[in-house]
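Hey team,

Sharing the ER membrane protein complex subunit 6 run so nobody has to redo it. Sequence (123 residues) first:
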Amino acid sequence: MAGNNGSGASEKKSSESLTDLPIFSAENTQSNLKVIYYSRTFMSIIGGVISGILGFTGLYGFIFYFVIMAITSVGLVAKAKFSIHSYFDGWNRIMLDGITGGLMSFVLFWTYPFLPLTCFSSA
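Structure output:
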């Protein structure tokens, strides 16, 4: 087996092995997930209002939503300095988390500005 190389070498090996393991803080990870959720909700609301004002209907509105979510995902990745695994446990958290919840907000704010335009435009 291995001989005794002194305490300095074993101390160095143990400190290197500790930095190799990914360590996540539950509070920090939860805070990062809240930021993703709030960012997606905010962008869904803004995208819904813009989509309603521009008069997108049907499939075009949903395509616009997914484009907004793709831009949001790229912005979040850029904010994390393209080092996703330092802040999250995987790519799916930053790319997919909160998309369905944001869709409900998008549809609500998509139809709200669009309704007055359709009701009063025929008069």
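The longest helix spans residues 26-54.

Ping me if you want the raw files.
A.
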